[in-house]
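Lab notebook: predicted structure, single chain.

Context: the supervisor wants predicted structures on file for every construct in the current expression panel, including those that have not yet been purified. This is the next one on the list. No modifications to the sequence; it matches the entry in the shared construct table.
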Amino acid sequence: MFESLKKKFSRTSEKLEEELIEEAEAEDNLQEESGSRFSFFSFGRKTDEKKEEEVVEEEENLLPEAEEIEEVPEAEEVEEIPEVEDEEIEEEPKEEKKSRFWHRNKDKDEPAEEAEDEEIEEEPKEEKKSRFWSRNKDKDEDEEDVSADGEAKGGIFSFVREKTIQEKHVEDILFELEMELLQGDVAMEVATEVVENVKENLVGKKIKRSNDITEYTYYALKDAVEEIISIPGKSMTEMIEEKKAQGEPLVVMFVGINGTGKTTTIGKLANYYLKKGYTPVIAASDTFRAGAIEQVTYHADNVGVKIIKHQKGSDPAAVAYDAVEHARAQGKELVLIDTAGRMQTNTNLMDEMKKIKRVSNPDLVIFVGDAITGNDATEQARKFNDAIDIDGVILTKADADSKGGASLSIGYVIQKPIMFLGVGQGYDDIMEYDPEWMLNQLFSEDEEIVENEA
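Prediction complete. Output recorded below exactly as produced.
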């Protein structure tokens, strides 16, 4: 997922490193340094490891009282152990010493074999030294030096005199990044914002070794993306609970163009909240499209929820109203209103959608967009937001989106949160959107680490 964006980010780091190393070499300001070269994505794992250590420390701090209580029975048990058992315990190390003695004799009998082994082991060491200066070896050779932590032995440089990242070092590289982001269906304002934030974070940084360049670039890009995707907003589950406390159902209206998976998403959400213990009801307010009522009825029957429907061509606002009244009367917590797909340029259908909103008075208006369409989905969301003021976004087919342009852009452009992602074709293939999850997808991936180091 989002492979294209990940490669763009890692290439930016590599280009900046090459730029600074070439300049330092021309200035005679470069020297070999022992150690391991970190890959771009290795810093993502280091962050995760720190979090795990903090969790472990917190758990250890919660156990001091339990340890003190355990100390008393341990002392009592020691007093009850008879002396005979102590003697038996002492005999065991003697046997170990005897076995070690025989091993020593064997070692003395095989000095020649050890010498031969040492000569064989010396050869790979020489190979590693010779490979230090070459960073463009074949992929198979590089993979041998990359550890599970994303570290590669050799290839690390340090600067005799400390260098400072200047605007001239990043200008061309960030321009290339901006163009690549635009080609990857990232919205213009998002690409510009990312590049400006990265530039602000990098320029002026002091660097002593090549690993510093990779680390600073990694965190500059991660911070820039985090700022873009972190749009505040309540989750739908929290809103259901708030409305439930008031004795009212949460009313959600779904809008979007044809073919984005709006009706299927409603079926997935009905299944999602049914499994959480809520009772949804679906309103078949798409009375315009042929087969729409049958389609949403099929999904409702499959997941086992009530559907409120009228005849084809009837007033969609009336269907939505009846569904809300049914939920109130039956004590159901969630109303999901399906509406006809429409292009944002179709004035008549947009006016009809405004009427549905006015009559049903939804708590949430959610735009459903296809992640694969990239910039088109972002522009559609912008138009719908201008027309009826949407409250959130659901992106379908996110699992098949290699570019990631819509996922990165859509929330920032309309300043409304992404609420769910469709990640497959089954009813269970939907997940609540989490910015932290998105960051992890973009900045930590084991398979990509090896590929980028090659």
